[in-house]
Amino acid sequence: MRDAVIVGVDSSGRSLRALIWAANEAALHQRPLYIVHVLPSWEMDFPFYPPGRSQGASRRGAAILAEAEAIVRESHPGLEVATTQLPGSPSEVLRSASEQAHSIVLGARGEGGFGNLLLGSVSL
């Protein structure tokens, strides 16, 4: 989405705060909101992953996006909203999406294992 406010979401509380911030920013500047969930491609690279694991991750991602969209539509009913789920590295996917964006919003940290970092790995 050209000139949209883009927000990356996962299921973390910080992601929810980023979503709300992004929705408010999009409404304030009369921009569309583009909600992105990234499926890390490395999960699919392991040959010993149990069958069906990628479908489960995809379903979980779709549920995260549906919940995020519902939250935004409740608080900003007139806002143009689109969602997408993309495979890859979160930092690379979001950086690529931001090239044509008005702005990009990320939480401080997501669900990764680096809890002591001030910024999350995607933000860094």
Question: What's the rounded overall pLDDT mean?
Answer: 82
Please describe the biggest sheet, giving its number of strands, its sense, and whether it closes into a barrel: 4 strands, parallel
Tally of contiguous helical segments: 4
- String of helices and strands: EHEHHEHE
Explain this structure.
- Helices cover 42% and strands 19% of the residues.
- The protein has 124 residues and is α/β, with parallel strands linked by helices.
- It has a four-stranded parallel β-sheet, with helices on both faces.
- Helix 1 links the parallel strand 1 and strand 2.
- Helix 1 (13-28) crosses helix 3.
- It is globular.
- The two termini are 24 Å apart.
- The model is unreliable at 116-124 (pLDDT under 50).
